[in-house]
Design goal:
With about 250 residues, this protein is α/β, with parallel strands linked by helices. It has one domain: 4-Layer Sandwich (Nitrilase/N-carbamoyl-D-aminoacid amidohydrolase), CATH 3.60.110. The protein is about 30% helix and about 30% strand. It is built from four helices and 14 strands. The protein is globular, with a radius of gyration of 16 Å.
């Protein structure tokens, strides 16, 4: 399976512009024979730690996802894109799996660090091109048990949509730690790991970007340079599908 993890500037509260950016990347991915395309955490409408902003974006997510699905229905690439969403009575931080314009699955962040966001309790896995994969989101990488749950489902690959847009001093402290977490999760689970992150400055916050593909032994197979827009691309070796475990 050929995977691409996108590193790009964040877009806030502009679903039209975000969808245009996703479609542009899907055109590129189709030409490059990419099977699976991953975007950063809450990319569709933007990430936030403000409860009111989170709730507003969650309320708009259903319509934005419907519009996105309509626009990407003709593309053969599997898309993973995130958004805050309503899961009554809760608000969750989710990553959606979209295939030919249809939402085929969803993972909700197990360890949300956003105020008012409820934790997900399921760890589904999905299959593309004979590779089974699961998803953890950003802060989940600090919790080995979240990755272990995905690995127990027979995953070969764990996707990590990230959003490291932080106060500059905090962003500096996390420059090395973000990648170290991904390496640790790969070695722990013996899974491939792929992360997608935002870059740049916004409202006094900064993200250097940690978009990488890490092999099960912990070596970094591909990475986008810090503060640069681009994609980490790698072809995962074929493996026999692992059986799911209880």
């Amino acid at each position: 399976m050929r995977i691409a993890a996108i590193q790009c500037p964040a877009i806030a509260d502009d679903a039209v512009r975000t969808c245009e950016a996703i479609v542009q990347r899907l055109r590129w991915a189709t030409k490059e024979a990419i099977d699976l395309l991953v975007f950063p955490e809450a990319y569709l409408l933007g990430h936030s730690y403000e409860p009111g902003v989170i709730r507003s974006r969650a309320e708009k997510a259903s319509e934005a996802l419907a519009d996105l699905c309509q626009q990407v229905a003709t593309f053969p690439v599997t898309l993973v894109v995130g958004a805050f969403n309503l899961a009554p009575p809760d608000t969750q931080n989710s990553a959606f799996v979209v295939e030919r314009g249809r939402i085929s699955g969803r993972y909700a962040k197990a360890y949300p660090n956003e105020p008012g966001v409820a934790a997900g309790r399921e760890f589904p896995t999905f299959v593309r091109s004979a590779i089974r994969y699961g998803i953890n989101i950003c802060n989940d990488a600090n919790h080995p048990d979240a990755a272990e749950q995905v690995a127990r489902g027979g995953a070969d690959l764990i996707l990590y949509p990230l959003n490291n847009m932080l106060p500059p001093a905090t962003a500096e402290r996390w420059r090395e730690k973000s990648l170290a977490n991904l390496v640790a999760r790969a070695r722990q689970t013996r899974c491939w790991v792929a992360s997608s992150d935002v870059i740049g400055q916004s409202q006094g916050l900064l993200s250097y970007g940690c978009t990488a593909i890490v092999a099960p032994d912990g070596h970094v197979a591909a990475r986008v340079p810090e503060l640069r827009e681009g994609a980490a691309v790698f072809e995962l070796p074929e493996r026999q599908l692992q059986p799911m475990t209880a």
